[in-house]
């Protein structure tokens, strides 16, 4: 059976003018800054005014099991559930992250949902959108330039060029930039040193934009960014380099959340785009709080599986922003469960009940993990065209055996109509008490916090700290940075730090090789495995399928 592509469906959308979408949320034309007819930013003064209101909506988080590289449908389910709730008369908004151009041009494709559950205009959203990620990149690279310029201009801060832990960024998957040498060409060009590039969404500036609540908070956080150490081991910050103000100025528009709509005209706040394997993987606090103040129900998502995005949503975003989710949707797919049951990537479309049954252990662990945070949950079986009835029934039956709510979600194929059963289950859950609690106390030691996440959420038997990680901990304690939440940098395809361990690995050990401080974001990043901060393009990049005609119509973007 042939299906319309995402972009074909999106280009047929009957969009309302963004003023009408804003009006659905009680926002007037004075509250928004138009970016054409279908995109807008919310003014900061509107944000401040709304934050003074008592009202707050019910908050639903969409997470998933450990995904295949293509993703299992969190964004799609978030959009579809938002559409379904509106279809049954609930005033609902969604809050998503904005796509990075790297995956768009690489393997993943867009992050605007899929099928009949997409945000639109998807070409704009997936390409430059309102320029936020470009602004984040240039603010980040201003700081990089300031570091090398400081060394060139006399190095008053006694900065040790071998202790710069701040790479440059670009919003593209470009493995050739992972390790570079800068400052070549003689002293006129500065002092040669090894450097490298990360993908922009891995920048701490992105995390800061997603956690800040206004310009002054943004500027203060930017100033706290630790970018290097002096020869006598003192932390050197963006404020020491005197560029925090300029960085904040470059972000004056990026800090404002974006408003667009879904295919069924559900309001969608899209703002910030950190990945969940190398950063905290959640859209901005400001966008989420705007949605909570203007709608009655808010559906938001966190990246990759519940061991990454959801864990960080609970332990970092909710902790900092004083949020308490009322329900969680755990997206599961037959294809990902078969992968966890041992099926190879190119056989995922064939029915395999024994592999599916084996792979269900991954879903079971994620169910247990979400339950540790005290929030009611429902499993959404995201139906793919290749799924068979026996496969879908097997997943449903296991959930029922576990005493867990479960609903078949057909939002990709049917839009909101395909999510009504899921929406009804979510509404039932929301009536139950939610006893949300974080997993650890920030006052615990760094080792204890990391061990808690690895053993409780991943199922690890033990955590090993490499020599460098132990050195990092000593420095972090000396600098007073040890009482912060932890942002684990780990592979998304396994509960463990080993991509090869599928299903529900047991008895494994997690090794933390390095720990960086994101002092502006307010968390520590614990690096495991060989997590890439600069992905590479695949053999056949998605970019090869993208084109534009003489009328500006884009094709091949998915
Ligand atoms: N039920 C489905 N059937 C077919 N394709 C789907 C379905 N759900 C999602 N997709 C596609 O899979 C990819 C990943 O979906 P997405 O919602 O972005 O996942 P995630 O947010 O978990 O990464 C997208 O290309 C999307 O169009
Ligand atoms: O950070 C990763 O996000 P997705 O799960 O949406 O790819």
UniProtKB/TrEMBL annotation:
Catalytic reactions on record: (6S)-5,6,7,8-tetrahydrofolate + formate + ATP = (6R)-10-formyltetrahydrofolate + ADP + phosphate
Q: Which CDD domains does the record match to this protein?
A: FTHFS (cd00477)
Please name the pathway: One-carbon metabolism; tetrahydrofolate interconversion
Q: Hey, what's the signal peptide range on this chain?
A: none
Q: Which domain of life is it from?
A: Bacteria
Which terms in the Gene Ontology molecular function aspect does this entry carry? Answer: ATP binding; formate-tetrahydrofolate ligase activity
At which positions is ATP bound?
68-75
Annotated keywords: ATP-binding, Ligase, Nucleotide-binding, One-carbon metabolism
Coiled-coil portions: none
> GO biological process: what's one of them?
tetrahydrofolate interconversion
Going by the record, the broad EC class of this enzyme is ligase
Q: Which InterPro entries match?
A: Formate_THF_ligase, Formate_THF_ligase_CS, P-loop_NTPase
Q: Which Gene3D superfamilies match?
A: Domain 2, N(10)-formyltetrahydrofolate synthetase, Formyltetrahydrofolate synthetase, domain 3, P-loop containing nucleotide triphosphate hydrolases
The UniProt similarity line reads:
Belongs to the formate--tetrahydrofolate ligase family.
* Family matches, as NCBIfam families: PRK13505.1
Question: What is the official name of this protein in its record?
Answer: Formate--tetrahydrofolate ligase
Native species: Orenia metallireducens
Q: What is the lineage of its organism?
A: Bacteria, Bacillati, Bacillota, Clostridia, Halanaerobiales
């Amino acid at each position: 059976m042939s299906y319309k592509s995402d972009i074909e469906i999106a280009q047929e959308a009957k969009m309302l003018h963004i003023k009408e979408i804003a009006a659905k949320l009680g926002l007037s034309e004075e509250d928004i800054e138009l970016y054409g007819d279908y995109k807008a930013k919310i003014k900061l003064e509107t944000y401040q005014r709304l934050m003074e209101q008592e009202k707050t909506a019910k908050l639903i988080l969409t997470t998933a099991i450990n995904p295949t590289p293509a993703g299992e449908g969190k964004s799609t389910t978030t959009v579809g559930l938002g559409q379904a709730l509106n279809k049954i008369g609930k005033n609902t908004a969604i809050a998503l992250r904005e796509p990075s151009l790297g995956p768009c041009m690489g393997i993943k494709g867009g992050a605007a949902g899929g099928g009949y559950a997409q945000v639109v205009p998807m070409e704009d959203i997936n390409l430059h959108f309102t320029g936020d990620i470009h602004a984040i990149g240039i603010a980040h690279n201003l700081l990089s330039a300031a570091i090398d310029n400081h060394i060139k201009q006399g190095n008053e801060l006694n900065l040790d060029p071998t202790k710069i832990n701040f790479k440059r960024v670009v919003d593209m998957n470009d493995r050739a930039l992972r390790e570079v040498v800068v400052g070549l060409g003689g002293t006129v060009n500065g002092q040669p040193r090894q450097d490298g590039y990360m993908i922009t969404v891995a920048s701490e500036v992105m995390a800061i934009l997603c956690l800040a609540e206004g310009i002054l908070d943004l500027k203060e956080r930017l100033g706290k960014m630790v970018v290097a150490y002096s020869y006598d081991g003192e932390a050197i910050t963006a404020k020491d380099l005197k560029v925090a103000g300029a960085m904040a100025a470059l972000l004056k528009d990026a800090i404002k959340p974006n408003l667009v709509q879904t295919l069924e005209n559900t309001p969608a706040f899209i703002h910030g785009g950190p990945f969940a394997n190398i950063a905290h993987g959640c859209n901005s606090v400001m966008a989420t709080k705007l949605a909570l103040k203007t709608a009655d129900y808010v559906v938001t998502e966190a990246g990759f599986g519940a061991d990454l995005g959801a864990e960080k949503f609970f332990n970092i975003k909710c902790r900092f922003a004083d949020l308490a989710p009322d329900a969680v949707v755990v997206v599961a797919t037959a294809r990902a469960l078969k992968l966890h049951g041992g099926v190879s990537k190119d056989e995922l479309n064939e029915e395999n009940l024994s592999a599916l049954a084996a792979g269900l252990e991954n879903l079971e662990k994620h169910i247990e993990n979400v339950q540790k945070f005290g929030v009611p949950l429902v499993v959404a079986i995201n139906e793919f065209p290749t799924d068979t009835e026996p496969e879908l029934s097997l997943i449903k039956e296991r959930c029922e055996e576990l005493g867990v709510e479960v609903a078949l979600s057909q939002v990709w194929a049917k839009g909101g109509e395909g999510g009504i059963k899921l929406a009804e289950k979510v509404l039932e859950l929301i009536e139950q008490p939610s006893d949300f609690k974080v997993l650890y106390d920030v006052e615990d030691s760094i080792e204890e916090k990391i061990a808690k996440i690895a053993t409780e959420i991943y199922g690890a038997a033990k955590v090993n700290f490499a020599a460098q990680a132990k050195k990092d901990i000593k420095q972090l304690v000396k600098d007073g940075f040890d009482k912060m939440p932890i942002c684990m940098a780990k592979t998304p395809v396994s509960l463990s730090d080993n991509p090869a361990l599928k299903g529900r690995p047991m008895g494994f050990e997690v090794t933390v090789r390095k720990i960086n401080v994101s002092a502006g974001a307010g968390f520590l990043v614990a690096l495991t495995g060989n997590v890439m901060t600069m992905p590479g393009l695949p053999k056949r990049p998605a970019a090869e399928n993208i084109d534009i005609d003489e009328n500006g119509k884009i094709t091949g973007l998915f």
